[in-house]
Every structure is written in structure tokens, then in C-alpha cells.
Specification:
25% helix, globular, alpha+beta, five-stranded antiparallel sheet, Agglutinin, subunit A, 785 residues, 26% strand
Length: 785
């Protein structure tokens, strides 16, 4: 009996030893092929990985989340030197105690490359995602760790910083493309010059974005870092004689977060949404994609609200097109026709020409000639073989060589720059040839026109009921009909959380806005039922839904067109409108009325989930109309958590979104309050550090309310005609809306009464996160007592 017991005990011990070894690689237990290491708690795995759509013979040794369905590599050992066959390659421990990756020819591909006084070592994958090399006898004594050599992902607990003793710097470097994890152009690091901030660099040289200085609670340029409870997300900035580093911590039991340096140069904080089976961004640094240096390469235009944000200028075509396809347009564009530069200025003037291009701002690195005329400015460019563009606005600016960092205007004409093209791009002979081709075909067109008209008449009679079928109060449109009405969806009005919006015109001349929905997986019957419900919701401050299209997987909504576009364009566009205080106040009141209707007067309560200036549209009289209401239910509740703006700011997101508690209408109230601060100031809350002030605007509102100096909150354009009583009401409402405790936030119905002057309201207490921000702004919170 005893021998059987001992045998069983030995089997159990062996099984336990194998189980423990599942997270460990050693000289006796190498890793190859489809094998993988899994951390003791099952959170992370290490093995061989190949990017989606990547070359079949390019494999990498990587760490990824083990409990998340989407393979997400967070660290790669051999990112610049892939192996072709993982089955004949292996990760092992060398004779000198280093971790080494050997290919099929047993050539060294990657090594930890340390000098150690012991060769009895093992590699262990930890539940933090850290892969460590340690002595077999003491695996907590790290000789090397992957956290010190990160790739493009920053995990909680990893240090971003510099060891002052060894000189080693831990920084994060973007991938080259979505299929190539080799080091790209963009990096995130602690400022090596000693200022306590993080910087974004391009190509190890140009600094294109800074977080602002660490205040002890947050970075001055990223106030969102102080917004969340410390038991969910906290930051630690350490400076001592040995090292300077930044580290962040999260509560993995509540939410899974990570920071990633994207191919396009933005650092995004992303959260795993199990309902969507995907990572969802809720903060991007920098917020505007087009502020990233060289993001579109040479001779390309960056458009901020376009899904495909880079496009070649007229006369240029994509260079290295494969890289564009895989998310890296930085290869830029190349000329379709060479410039005719032979040194003869008279011939040169006839050979090359210019076309005007509207831009948000002029490119960098211009040479300025102050005293010449517009004609002489153009000739100065033509007479220089290297000159590629000029601009004239009282003084002459010339650009030589490649044009970079060109940004499209945001809903306005912006400034004009004149791009130089070869003669063939303007050739009259080319126009003549095109005219001859047109003339040769016009006969055939006329010949078939009568037949086409006849067919269209027949088809119109047959399909009119299908194209314009009325379902309830909505029109059911066919996809082809909307494709024609929008010129193949060519005129983009914007991009929101739920899809892109294009301008269209119906046959009777009615202008419409067509929203192509993303991520809708409902069947046709359920979709029609939900849309019909939205169609019955009508209020003067809600955008009117005219109809919809539901064909297979394509789902679209057709809305009335708003000539003054969205509130964000009026307030924050490249050439913002000057809205009087009266107009702003009526906009704030109208939005409140629309939300009150959704929250309190609809047959079924509707939580918008996405209140922000981008979702407030303005008609020709600047009457506000809320857009995108009811869409959260169409695309699923989890999708409505998508940071409410795909450009990456959490500026309107209520704290309860992150804490994981049930969402109520008070989340909309919080978002409304944050937007009301922006209506008052005319600036983005998150851009306060760029506005010539050291104080976050909501903090400034709280200060001025208690000091009785609300007139100081208004700019010179608003002060003369502003009703200070209305200003005080709006400021009080905004502060009440952003309270941490949702139970003490007012309802939208109460907000309407306050703004209309029917109900008075007391001075609000200062919310928790404003207390934190106030400390960094030398603001005494004693004023709230």
C-alpha cells in the first residue's frame, strides 16, 4: 500500500513541477514551434507570433495577452530580425546564462546580452507581462527584464525613463507598419534635457508634442491624468540620484488598460471592451492626428476628420503604396511629371505653373522675402529650380524641396499656398485632346441618350415605391440611390463615434446628411424596428431623421442637412466664428432642452452616451440640434463607451464610465457640463495649457465664481454685450453638472429651468478632480467652505 502511495505522491509532484514550468524556459526546456509560456495566473503568454496579413515567413518571439481573444503583442524580442521557421528555431538559455533566440541554422538572432556571475538561469513570464531572466535559485532577483527594453506598448508597472548610473533609457518606439513591427519613426520618452515631462520625437530628432511638466498630480498638458480615482489609475513620477522614471498602475480586476505608440505617432490609452472584442481608445496624445510631425510624408495633405487622413496633392501619387495600405503613409507622394527646369527663366515661366491649395496653416521652413509684390513672388519661385511652392499675403514665402506637414482646412478656406507643377499638368494641348475625345464620343452619347431615358422612365415607375417607400414617418432608400445622391459618398462632412457622414442632394434639391453606420450587426427586421422608434422622436432641438437604408450589411441613416455644420467647427475650427454671448447662451439652452426631452419626455428613456460639440449641429439661425441620439442602442451598449470621440479625448466622459457602474442619464449631464465650459470659453477644455493660462478652465470658473469675478472668464469679444447674470447661471450649472457624485448632479429638466431664470441655484461644491487640478494651479479650495 505504501509504495502505491509514494508512486501517487511522485506523480503529483511531477505534475506540479510541470505546471510550474509552464511559465519558464531553461536550457533543459527550450521553447520552439507552437509551444508557449503562460504566466502563473494565465494573464500573459510568450511564444512565436506572426502579424495579421503579414508575410508567411516572418515570425517573431512575442508576449501577448493570454485571456483576451484578440492577439495583442505587447513586447517583441526580434522586432527587426524576423525568423522564417519557428519550428526549427528555439528560445533557450545559453552556456553563459543569457536568454538566446536561435534560428534554423542555429545563428544568434536575439540575446539578453548580459554579463552574469552565474550560468544557472531561467526565463520566466510574469503576470505583469514582464519577461525576466533570473538565477534558478532565486527567480525574484532579475538579471534582465523585458520591461527595460520595451517595444511599442507601455504596460502598467513598467518604467518609462532613464537610469542615471548605467545611462540606459527605456522608451517606446512605434511599429514600421501594421505588418512590420521593426522600429518606426515615432518615440515616447522622458525628456533627456531634465524637464519633468514626456516628449514625442520623430526620427530621434524633431520634438512634435510634449505632455507639459509634472505637477505632482498630473502633467500640465494632460489634465485627464488626474481625473480618475487612484484605485483605478494612478501615476508615479520619480526623480532621484539613480534614475528618473514615470510609471502607472491600474486595477486589472476592474479594467484592462495599456498605452501604445501607434504607427501614426499618437500615443493612445486603450481599454479592452469584451462586448466589442476589441481595444477602444479613450485618450490620444497629441489629440489631433495632423499635429504629428511628417505623419503623411512629403507632398501629402492631412485631413483631421477623415478616416483615411492622408491624401496626395494634385499632381502627385502615392510612394511605396504597400506601406500606405498597412497604416504607414509617411513614405509620402511623388510627382507624376518632372519639373522642366533648365535655367532659362523665360522658358521656365512658360513651362511650369502653380495651382492654389487651401490649407489650415502654411508649412514650416519657409523663406520670406518681405518687400516683393505677388507677381515677383511667383517669378522668384519659378526662377529657382528647387522652389516647389510659394504663398503671398503682404510678404512672400517660398518653399524649397519637399513639402511636409500640410493640413487641410477645417471647414473654411484657410490660407492659400501655390503648388508648383510641371507644364503637362496644365497643358492646353492636353485640354484640346480631351475636348476632341469628348467630341468624338458625344454622338454616341446622344444616340444612346434616348434609350437610356426610356429605360430610366420604366425603372423609375417600377422602383419608385422601393426607392421612396415610406415606412412609418421615414423614407426607405436604396443603397444605389444614396450612392448617386452623395456622388459615391465623396463629400465627407465628418467622422463620429458611430460612423462617417457625407453630404448628399436629393433629386428635388433637398440637401441631406448620410451617416454610414459602423459595427451594426443587427438583422434587417430588428434594425428597421429600432430606426423606426428613433424616427418617431421629434423635437426642435433634435436632428430630424428623414429615412434609412438597410441592404445586407450596409446600414445608413439619412438626416436633414445643417448649413452651419457642428458646434466644434464654429468654436474650435481653424477659422472659428465669433459667436456672441446671446448666441452661445441660446445654444446652451437649446441643447439642454433637447437632452431634457430625451431623458424625461420620450416614451422610452434615451441616454445619448456621446454628448460633445461634434454632435451638436447648427442650422442657418444657429439653433442647436443634437445628433446621434438613440444610436448607442443600435450598435450595442459597449460601443457607446468608445471614448465618445474617435480622435481620442476623454474630455466629456463621466467618471462612472471607467468605474464600471451602471450608466444613467447623469452621464449625459456630466458631458453637458464639460461642453458648457467650452461654450463659455470658446476653447477646448483640454487645450487650456495652450491658451496663455496656467489654469484649467473649469478650475478657473470655480475660482472666479467664489471670487465674484465671472466677467474675467470672458474674452474681449464677449465682454461688451454679455449678460453677467446669464454668465453666472451658466458657470454654476457647469460646475454642478461635473460633480463626482452623480446623485447631486441636476437633471436636464432642472438645468433648463435654471438657464431660463425660473429657478435659482446655490454655489456648487468643487468636484474631486477639480480639487486635484486646483492644487496644481495654486488654487485654495477653502473658497468652497
Amino acid at each position: 500500500m505504501l509504495p502505491c502511495f509514494l508512486l501517487l505522491l511522485l506523480c503529483l509532484c511531477a505534475h506540479h513541477a510541470l505546471a510550474r514550468a509552464a511559465d519558464t524556459v531553461s536550457r533543459d526546456r527550450p521553447l520552439s514551434g507552437g509551444q508557449r509560456l503562460v504566466s502563473s495566473g494565465g494573464y500573459f503568454a510568450l511564444g512565436f507570433f506572426r502579424p495579421d496579413n503579414g508575410a508567411p515567413n516572418r515570425w517573431y518571439l512575442a508576449i501577448w495577452y493570454n485571456k483576451i481573444s484578440k492577439t495583442t503583442p505587447v513586447w517583441i524580442a526580434n522586432r527587426a530580425t524576423p525568423i522564417s521557421d519557428p519550428n526549427s528555431s528555439k528560445l533557450t538559455v545559453s552556456e553563459d546564462g543569457n536568454l538566446v533566440l536561435l534560428d534554423q541554422a542555429k545563428s544568434l538572432i536575439w540575446s539578453t546580452n548580459i554579463t552574469s556571475n552565474t550560468n544557472s538561469t531561467v526565463g520566466v513570464i510574469l503576470d505583469s507581462g514582464n519577461f525576466v531572466l533570473a538565477p534558478t535559485s532565486n527567480t525574484s532577483n532579475f538579471k534582465w527584464q523585458s520591461f527595460d527594453e520595451p517595444t511599442n506598448v507601455w504596460l502598467p508597472g513598467a518604467k518609462l525613463g532613464r537610469n542615471k548610473i548605467t545611462g540606459h533609457t527605456a522608451r517606446f518606439i512605434s511599429w514600421q507598419s501594421s505588418v512590420d513591427p521593426s522600429p518606426g519613426y515615432y518615440t515616447l520618452e522622458i525628456d533627456p534635457d531634465g524637464s519633468n515631462q514626456c516628449i514625442h520625437r520623430w526620427n530621434n530628432s524633431a520634438i512634435y508634442w510634449e505632455t507639459g511638466l509634472w505637477t505632482g498630480h498630473m502633467f500640465s498638458g494632460v489634465p485627464e491624468t488626474a481625473m480618475y480615482p487612484k484605485d483605478h489609475l494612478s501615476y508615479e513620477f520619480v526623480v532621484n540620484n539613480q534614475e528618473t522614471y514615470l510609471m502607472y498602475h491600474t486595477n486589472a480586476s476592474v479594467v484592462t488598460w495599456m498605452l501604445i505608440m501607434e504607427i501614426s505617432g499618437q500615443v493612445k490609452t486603450v481599454q479592452w471592451m469584451e462586448g466589442r472584442k476589441d481595444w477602444v481608445p479613450f485618450l490620444a496624445m497629441p489629440k489631433a492626428q495632423c499635429t504629428v510631425y511628417f505623419v503623411c510624408g512629403s507632398f501629402a495633405m492631412c485631413t483631421e476628420d477623415d478616416v483615411t487622413f492622408c491624401s496626395c496633392l494634385r499632381g502627385f501619387s502615392k510612394q511605396y503604396n504597400g506601406e500606405w495600405r498597412y497604416g504607414n503613409p509617411s513614405g509620402g507622394c511623388t510627382r507624376n511629371a518632372k519639373l522642366q527646369c533648365d535655367g532659362n527663366s523665360s522658358r521656365q515661366a512658360k513651362a511650369d505653373g502653380f495651382y492654389a491649395l487651401a490649407v489650415a496653416k502654411l508649412p514650416d521652413k519657409a523663406w520670406v522675402l518681405a518687400t516683393v509684390s505677388a507677381d515677383k513672388c511667383e517669378k522668384a519661385c519659378l526662377n529657382n529650380c528647387s522652389c516647389t511652392a510659394y504663398s503671398y499675403s503682404g510678404s512672400c514665402s517660398l518653399w524649397y524641396g519637399d513639402l511636409i506637414n500640410i493640413v487641410a482646412p477645417d471647414g473654411s478656406t484657410g490660407q492659400s499656398i501655390y503648388i508648383r507643377l510641371a507644364a503637362s499638368e496644365f497643358s492646353s494641348s492636353a485640354k484640346t485632346q480631351a475636348a476632341m475625345i469628348w467630341a468624338s464620343t458625344v454622338g454616341a452619347i446622344l444616340l444612346t441618350l434616348i434609350v437610356i431615358i426610356g429605360i430610366l422612365v420604366i425603372l423609375k415607375r417600377r422602383s419608385f415605391s422601393e426607392v421612396n417607400k415610406v415606412e412609418g414617418s421615414l423614407v426607405v432608400f436604396r443603397y444605389r440611390f444614396l450612392q448617386n445622391a452623395t456622388k459615391n459618398f465623396s463629400e465627407m462632412l465628418g467622422k463620429g463615434s458611430f460612423g462617417s457622414v457625407c453630404k448628399g442632394i436629393l433629386p428635388d434639391g433637398t440637401l441631406v446628411a448620410v451617416k454610414k453606420l459602423d459595427g451594426v450587426f443587427q438583422g434587417d427586421k430588428q434594425f428597421r424596428a429600432e430606426v423606426s422608434t428613433i424616427g418617431t422622436i421629434q423635437h426642435v432641438n433634435l436632428i430630424r431623421l428623414l429615412g434609412f437604408c438597410s441592404e445586407r450589411s450596409m446600414k445608413m441613416l439619412v438626416y436633414e442637412f445643417m448649413p452651419n455644420r457642428s458646434l466644434d467647427r464654429c468654436l474650435f475650427g481653424s477659422t472659428p466664428m465669433t459667436l456672441s454671448w446671446k448666441t452661445r447662451y441660446q445654444i446652451a439652452l437649446g441643447i439642454a432642452k433637447g437632452l431634457a426631452y430625451l431623458h424625461e419626455k420620450c416614451r422610452s428613456l434615451i441616454i445619448h452616451c456621446d454628448i460633445k460639440p461634434e454632435n451638436v449641429l447648427l442650422d442657418d439661425a444657429f439653433m442647436p440640434k443634437i445628433a446621434d441620439f438613440g444610436l448607442a442602442k443600435l450598435v450595442g451598449r459597449d460601443f457607446s463607451r468608445v471614448l465618445t470621440t474617435m480622435r481620442g479625448t476623454i474630455g466629456y466622459l463621466a467618471p462612472e464610465w471607467i468605474s464600471g457602474v451602471a450608466i444613467t442619464v447623469k452621464a449625459d449631464v456630466f458631458s453637458y457640463g464639460m461642453m458648457l465650459f467650452e461654450i463659455i470659453s470658446g476653447n477646448r477644455n483640454t487645450d487650456w495649457h495652450q491658451q496663455g493660462t496656467d489654469t484649467f478652465f473649469p478650475v478657473l470658473v470655480a475660482m472666479r465664481l467664489h471670487e465674484g469675478k465671472i466677467q474675467d472668464l470672458l474674452g474681449p469679444d464677449l465682454t461688451p454685450d454679455a449678460n453677467l447674470e446669464e454668465v453666472e447661471r451658466a458657470c454654476k450649472v457647469a460646475c454642478w453638472c461635473v460633480q463626482d457624485n452623480e446623485n447631486i448632479r441636476p437633471t436636464m429638466g432642472e438645468i433648463v429651468q435654471i438657464l431660463e431664470g425660473l429657478v435659482d441655484v446655490a454655489f456648487p461644491p468643487i468636484p474631486w478632480y477639480l480639487h486635484v487640478l486646483a492644487q496644481s494651479s495654486n488654487f485654495s479650495t477653502e473658497a468652497s467652505h
